[in-house]
Write a structure and sequence with these properties.
Blueprint lengths: L3 E2 L9 H18 L11 H10 L9 E6 L5 E5 L9 H18 L6 E7 L2 H9 L3 H21 L7 E9 L5 E10 L1 E3 L5 E3 L5 H21 L5 H8 L7 E8 L4 H11 L9 E2 L6 E5 L11 E5 H9 L10 E5 L22 H4 L6 H9 L1 E2 L9 E7 L2 H11 L25
Parallel strand pairs: 1-14
Antiparallel strand pairs: 2-3, 2-15, 4-6, 4-9, 5-6, 5-13, 7-8, 10-11, 11-12
Helix pairs in contact: 1-2, 1-9, 3-8, 3-11, 5-6, 6-7
């Protein structure tokens, strides 16, 4: 496939960038004052993610100097922020490298099934403030799925290949903690052979859901998140709010479809192109790609501060992994797995394929189908240096006639003036 000429995105013109730049300071002061009872204290990683997002793709915060080996043209390439949960551009590149790495170097060519684990609304608040709960939730399901597989196939040595991805977002940015699990539709033996799972029966799914419910309730009770009385009450509910969906199956040999499923399971929390910021700048409209199941609409209207609150909910806790590997993908068992087949069906330039799937040039090509180092003359750019010193950045940008001032966030609005003699609530 032929690469197109790469042109840097205008990050400062994006709708989300304008919202964050204009309202971040007010949001920071409000959250530091403790005025959000539902979300509590301001997490430092949420604030640093917003601040890092304002520097992503902006030349004033650093860039790489490139020079064409043939025609001598030079250009500047802005650096990325690499923030989690807020920057869609960085997440897209991260997804491209991660999914290709799994498909090409780790996941054997067998059938894979997606499991979606959902918990009741009454329990979701605990996951907002305690990021460690996700790890235990996925570990419980991995153990149950392994036991179910061994019981159905009658072999105690079987291990499924399991990738668990945390998600905290619903269709319209609501806080909805759940887990997407991509698991092999069968298990591996220590000699590397694979035994496929027969068709999943409804009775197996019901038993697995019930076991999952009881194990999660018991775990939360032992962690003192819920009382023993509430645990026993919820265990007896006819409609307990726990659900497992296993309707998506990727057959053997469909590696490109498997890669897309992995990207879906670990996708960005929101659709950047669906953010609308009206001229009055009082509200933010978010449009999702699909309709909400209960609200029967695909949009939500937020106050600006509430919109930033909703985005901050989906920024991961510091030091917490959002992807975990179980079963046959554990580090101690990986060496027994058969090597995956050909990387992917789609073609790519030979000079990029030689760089490896972690190369940033290859990541950009996988996402946007452009070669960032391709010149208009057909030759390739060569990196001369990476400029991070503030004085040097200003000197180069001023010489080229580019903006050299630091982008500034707007100050917070002043509180409403209290009229004399009037008592405000």
């Amino acid at each position: 496939m032929q690469s197109h000429i790469y042109s840097s995105r205008q990050a400062e013109q994006a709708t989300l960038y304008q919202i964050v730049r204009e309202h971040l300071e007010e949001w920071r002061q409000r959250r530091q004052a403790g005025k959000d009872v539902e979300r509590g204290y301001l997490r430092s990683e949420a604030l640093s993610s917003f601040e890092g997002f304002l520097e992503c793709g902006i030349l004033r915060f650093g860039f790489a100097r490139l020079k064409c080996e043939a025609c001598g043209i030079e250009k500047l390439l802005a650096l990325s922020c690499r923030q989690r949960g807020i920057c869609a551009s960085c997440q897209a590149k991260r997804l491209a490298a991660w999914s290709e790495g799994l498909v090409s170097t780790l996941l054997p060519d067998v059938a894979y099934r997606q499991w979606v684990l959902v918990i009741p609304k009454r329990l979701r608040v605990f996951f907002r403030h305690d990021g460690t709960l996700f790890k235990k939730l996925s570990a419980i399901f991995a153990e149950l799925l392994t036991d179910c597989l061994r019981a159905v196939l009658g072999n105690e040595e079987l291990l499924p290949a399991i990738v668990a991805c945390d998600q905290t977002y619903g269709t319209l940015l609501g806080y909805h903690p759940h887990i997407h699990v991509i698991a092999s539709d069968g298990g591996f033996l220590p000699d590397g052979s694979f035994i496929p799972m027969p068709r999943i029966k409804s009775k197996h799914l019901r038993r697995l859901t019930e076991a999952f419910r009881r194990r999660v309730l018991l775990f939360l009770s032992r962690r003192h998140k819920i009382s023993t009385q509430l645990r026993k009450s919820m265990a007896g509910w006819e409609h307990g709010g726990f659900s497992l969906d296993a309707s998506v199956l990727v057959p053997k040999g469909q590696r490109e479809r498997l890669k897309k499923l992995l990207c879906y399971a670990h996708r960005h929390p929101f659709n950047s192109s669906g953010i609308v910021y009206p001229k009055n700048k009082q509200k933010v409209v978010y449009r999702a790609k699909k309709q909400h199941g209960l609200k029967k609409r695909n949009f939500e209207v937020f106050a600006v501060q509430a919109f930033l609150d909703a985005l901050s909910d989906h920024i991961p806790h510091r030091g917490r992994h959002r992807v975990r590997y179980y079963g046959a993908l554990h580090a101690s068992f990986r060496k027994f797995l058969p090597a995956p087949n050909d990387v992917l069906a789609e073609s790519e330039p030979a000079h990029l394929a030689k760089l490896g799937w972690k190369s940033w040039e290859r990541q950009l090509w996988r996402v946007y189908e452009v070669d960032p180092l391709l010149c208009v003359c057909g030759a390739r750019f060569r990196r001369i240096s990476v400029i991070l010193q503030d004085a040097v950045i200003v000197k180069i940008l001023t010489h080229l006639g580019l903006p050299s001032e630091l982008p500034k966030t707007l100050p917070a609005r002043a509180p409403p003036i209290k009229p004399e003699g009037l008592r405000l609530p």
